[in-house]
Design a protein that fits this description.
The complex is a heterodimer of chains A (161) and B (113). By secondary structure, chain A is of the alpha+beta class. Chain A is built from 4 helices and 8 strands. Chain A has an 8-stranded antiparallel β-sheet. Chain B has helices spanning 3-16, 19-30, 35-40, 46-58, 77-80, 83-105, and strands at 33-34, 62-67, 70-75. Classes of the chains: A alpha+beta (161), B alpha+beta (113). Chain A: Residues 23-159 form the Activator of Hsp90 ATPase homologue 1/2-like C-terminal domain.
């Protein structure tokens, strides 16, 4: 596993993940700069992503939807806030309707991705911040996440029943 | 984040990373179960199920009590809903993405020299 460090800041509602990839920075940048590559990594196998608009420039938007096992579609968007190719970029990630109009009732996370050359490979740092615990809960409840989070959503249904 | 909460997050991540444990957690959140009743629900030994229950207890996701010879387990709703467990769930998503990048950038074995 390339993940080398994970930090949970419970007060700042921030998740920081560090990963070392065996490829140069330019190659890792390409994963995000190319819509076809981005969609291969963004959604889990059970909810594959399709990237529709892709403008990785400050003020630009990246839009995508994820398709669930029953054909259900969940749309999201990135609002790109900063780009320093190929070292870093920042964006807000939110939910949208299927016409990619942002849904203001659902939470937005702030994300900063940073890539640094290290021993011939790349050290990537992913920082993701939510505005409130409720926002984080809502994101997990959206059902677009895999693994344990899917279980937690089911647990919530159970608790609500 | 303190070392203590980091350890707790690690324990939670480890506990939720296993499908059987997530299933056990769902059951005990719905109501108290004896470990032997849980064991009857899975195609594995009592000892194996008991071990899964112990991992969930160590992560603070369920609590155990004794009633005579029985061990009873119930889910800790507050712990499951805690920010730590939510960040842990989110961590799973990111780990998935990172693993997929790793696969995507792997050199094509036919082109390796």
């Amino acid at each position: 596993m390339p993940v080398t460090d994970v930090r949970h800041d419970l007060d700042a509602l921030t998740l920081t993940i560090t990963a070392d990839f065996a490829a140069p920075v330019a190659r890792i940048w390409q994963v995000y700069a190319d819509a076809r590559q981005l969609e291969k990594v963004w959604g889990p196998p059970t909810y594959p992503a399709t990237v529709v608009d892709h403008d990785l420039r400050p003020g630009g938007r990246v839009t995508y939807y994820m398709t669930g096992p029953e054909g259900d579609k969940h749309a999201g968007y990135w609002l790109v806030t900063a780009v320093d190719e190929p070292v870093s970029f920042a964006f807000e990630d939110g939910f949208a309707d299927l016409d990619f109009q942002p849904n203001p009732d659902l939470p937005v996370s702030r994300n900063v991705f940073t890539f640094a050359a290290r021993d011939g490979g790349t050290r990537a740092t992913y920082v993701s911040t939510y505005t409130s615990a409720e926002a984080l809960q809502q994101v997990l409840d959206m059902g677009i996440v895999e693994g344990a989070s899917a279980a937690i959503a089911q647990i919530d249904d159970l608790l609500a029943a | 984040m303190t070392e203590e909460s980091a350890d707790r997050a690690d324990a939670m991540f480890h506990a939720l990373a296993d499908r059987t444990r997530r299933d056990i957690l769902r059951r005990v959140l719905a109501g108290e179960h004896s470990v032997s009743a849980l064991a009857a629900a899975y195609d594995m030994s009592f000892a194996a199920v008991q071990k899964h229950v112990a991992v969930l207890a160590k992560a603070g996701l369920l609590t155990k009590r004794r009633r005579g010879r029985e061990q009873l387990a119930s889910g800790d709703v507050a712990a499951v809903r805690s920010v730590a467990s939510m960040l842990t769930a989110l961590e799973q998503v990111w780990r998935g993405r990172i693993a997929r990048i790793d696969v995507l950038i792997a050199p094509d074995p036919d082109q390796e020299d």
